[in-house]
């Protein structure tokens, strides 16, 4: 890693969240990027290091706690300058832990959430430096903000 490169931790759960995160890769061209997701098999999709954590959601409290601890452990080891996520639960945990560790945090709510923000996206505001939606009608003065439908 070049000493001037920013270290980015790019985070997404599986499926569409992961696909959307991969579409952001050109934005990381000048960065050292590591990835965190719920599917170890996704390592084939990236050149950088990939960390896999437990897949969990709000209805699976024990698994959610386990995932949060795993994410916190990765963040403590990686110490990224920037955490960016397209959601869902692992992204929420990464943004919260990243903020605690002094990283800049970016939440880009899933393109699939066209009528309302995602569960995680609606609760992430206190921990985000940049909070975005991809639907103009979901934007608000105090966030999330709309900068275009990029994914």
Chain-wise SSE layout:
Blueprint lengths: L6 E5 L4 H7 L9 E6 L12 E3 L8 H18 L3 E4 L3 H12 L3 E5 L10 H5 L6 E4 L11 E2 L5
Parallel strand pairs: 1-2, 1-4, 2-3, 4-5, 5-6, 6-7
Are there runs of 5+ residues with pLDDT below 50, and where? none
Number of domains: 1
Distance between the termini: 28 Å
Described by strand count, sense and barrel closure, the largest sheet is:
7 strands, parallel
Rounded mean pLDDT is 87
CATH topology: Rossmann fold
CATH architecture descriptor text? 3-Layer(aba) Sandwich
Oligomer: single chain
- Give the H and E element order: EHEEHEHEHEE
Structural class of the secondary elements? alpha/beta
**Shape category:** globular
Please report which band the strand proportion falls in: under 5%, 5-15%, 15-25%, 25-35%, 35-45% or over 45%. 15-25%
Strand arrangement in the largest pleated sheet: 3-2-1-4-5-6-7
Briefly say what this structure is.
It comes from Methylomonas methanica (strain DSM 25384 / MC09). The chain is α/β, with parallel strands linked by helices.
Kindly describe this structure.
This is Oligosaccharide biosynthesis protein Alg14 like protein. InterPro entries: Oligosacch_biosynth_Alg14. It comes from Methylomonas methanica (strain DSM 25384 / MC09). Pfam families: Alg14. The chain is of the alpha/beta class and 151 residues long. The chain has one domain (7-146): Glycogen Phosphorylase B (Rossmann fold, 3-Layer(aba) Sandwich), CATH 3.40.50. The protein has 4 helices and 7 strands; from the N terminus they run βαββαβαβαββ. It has helices spanning 16-22, 61-78, 89-100, 119-123; strands spanning 7-11, 32-37, 50-52, 82-85, 104-108, 130-133, 145-146. It has a 7-stranded parallel β-sheet, sandwiched between helices. Strand 4, helix 3 and strand 5 form a beta-alpha-beta unit. Helix 2 (61-78) crosses helix 3.
């Amino acid at each position: 890693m070049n000493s001037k490169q920013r270290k980015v931790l790019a985070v997404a759960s599986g499926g569409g969240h992961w696909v959307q995160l991969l579409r952001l890769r050109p934005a990381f061209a000048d960065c050292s990027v590591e990835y965190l997701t719920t599917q170890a098999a996704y390592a084939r999709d990236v050149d950088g290091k990939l960390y896999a954590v437990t897949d969990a959601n709000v209805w699976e409290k024990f698994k959610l706690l386990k995932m949060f601890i795993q994410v916190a452990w990765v963040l403590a080891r990686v110490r990224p300058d920037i955490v960016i996520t397209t959601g869902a639960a692992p992204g929420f945990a990464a943004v919260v832990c990243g903020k605690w560790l002094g990283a800049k945090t970016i939440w880009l709510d899933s393109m699939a959430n066209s009528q309302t923000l995602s569960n995680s996206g609606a609760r992430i505001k206190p921990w985000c430096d940049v909070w975005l939606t991809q639907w103009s009608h979901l934007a608000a003065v105090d966030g999330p903000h709309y900068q275009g439908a990029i994914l």
